[in-house]
Amino acid sequence: MSHAGHLSRSRLPAGSVVETQHWHPLSNGRVQCDLCPRYCKLAEGQRGLCFVRGNLEGKVVLASYGRSSGFCIDPIEKKPLNHFLPGTPVLSFGTAGCNLSCKFCQNWDISKSREIDTLADAASPERIAEVARAQGCRSVAFTYNDPIVFHEYAIDVARACRAQGIKSVAVTSGYVCEAPRREFYQHMDAANVDLKGFTDDFYHKLAGGHLKPVLDTLLYLRHQTEVWLELTTLLIPGWNDSDEEIDAMTRWVVRELGSQVPMHFTAFHPDWKMRDVPPTPLATLQRARLIAMRNGVHHAYTGNVHDKTGQSTWCHHCGQLLIERDGYRLGQWQLDPEGRCRYCHTPCPGVFEAEAGHWGERRQPIQMG
């Protein structure tokens, strides 16, 4: 396996290099990273595919600790999470690099970055927690690129946030090994996992990975943790949008994860290495939502499009509107203080406060310096 770039202390921002735990030495003088199923085998100075982890002086180090590509306050619905503190602001940030190589990446300028200069902002875990609290954020989200690749930094931020009463959200592809997965999710309160498709062929050809590790992560989250879980699938015309694949995926979700896990079907737009593929029609997303609900998914959503019906939350028992959404703006709120439908008193699955948040659709960049 070849890897881009060379790791040396002189090229890295001060204080950004930390030794990691999930690796072991090999007999040929290389070291193997055991964070994700890529198992990168690295010679001295060599980086993994993720770019931010590499072999420095015979140890696997993280080269982006405390560094970010930027901080921004978003609506929590943008993650997307529709059943986790709706309407509240979330302090969002990412770093650089990714452990998958999705040809359709919508954040490729961050996740595919091969420049440390991308990490233009810096903040300690304690500083992030303090700013989140001062800005009225109920949570902090690790997003824009996969937090798995900045595992140590994300965990330290989550610890600092928990001490301040701030919740932590992972927006991830779920491509991680068993031991680091257990360690990572001890500190998370919610996760949106990107289930990119439902065939290994799709993962192999378009994402440079495999499906099974992602399914293993979903099973672990649902059955062995208290982490609130939602799923997102970006539907790409001609690749993962057939009725047969959506049917198989949603049947698996209901059978293995249960009816209460929300699913988001979002629209692809031409980007990165798939600029020749057309955008996803609204009708495709609506069809996927109907297939999911027909198969027993209680809460299925459309995303990256304007579709009030498909973005709002409806009671799965009586069919009444519970949370009205127009984009990221909330309208009617028909949950009682215990998170139940006001009409039939059926509980709505999720993490809710007594009232809806009022952050709206604002996006507010934050300078940590």
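Second entry:
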Amino acid sequence: MSQKNETLSLFLAAMITIGLIFSGLWFFMERWAQLNGTVAKPSGIGNTDNPMNQLLSKCNVPNLPEGTFNYGGSTTWAPIRKDVDTVLQSLCPRFVLRYTQPPSGQPGSGTGIRMLIDNQLAFSQSSRSVKAEENAEARQKGFSLKEIPVGIDGIAIAVNHNLNVPGLTVAQVKDIYTGKITNWQQVGGPNLPITVYSRSKEAGGTVEFFVENVLNKENFGANVSYIGTTTEAVRKVAVNNGAIYYASAPEIVPQCTIKSLPIGRSSGQFVPPYQEPFVPQSECPSKRNQLNSQAFRSGDYAITRNLFVIVKPNGQTDQQAGEAYANWLLTPQSQELIEKAGFVRIK
């Protein structure tokens, strides 16, 4: 009897051991399948049937290094950092992006490029091209600067909803900001003084681009009042019938409290920065004006610019990080995300 009990005990112990082994194997096989994205997940965030979650299923960005990389620059890029870069962080958590403020002064394209030249950033984001003097300074330090265009933006001209002006030519915008035109009557509007707002030249790439390409490098007129942020400017334009301001189109076009003016290279050929028909203030915010992406991409809208990733081709990990990041932004999925962030896809 004791021999039978001993045999039964050995049999049960063997069965339990085999069961534990198979349970362990099953657990590790399932875990391996989940890590490789081959197991279907519940609906919601982990559901691979969702196109966005397919994008997040695993990190397959070519040549993307691991580590923490400082980047910075243009304030225009803020929606991309919020809505596009966060996707890359979720997709590739071992590639950590850390937005770095300048040690002094305001963040912007210029300060970002300056920090890149001073080895404070791995790469930078810019809403303007690299200047010749910036490239010359970089070459003095033994490297050059490479700009990779990844998106398209436009400059929109904001005015008060009560202002009745059909549009402005680029030359008229220049004359307003250099002080040659001071009354809306001079451009077909009411007899009303023009209140001119701008951020300062030190504010970033948008102002630098405006001075370079709209003012043809002329100085702002004495009539210009300087404000700190676009948010502040929008509030001022909303309560001043004669006010004017310029900024990145995604910051202006969808606003409810102000409107953006059509712009032309010549009088009578105005192109709006918004998709027609124009959404009136009475229908906002349930409906908002959308960017005229087709006109931006074709160049029919007169004041457009590229958005650039600026890298240092020095053969180091920072160059690899910047180029891999830029190449990822140029993929079809990322171009769609850039468009959803309010800009225009470049390809």
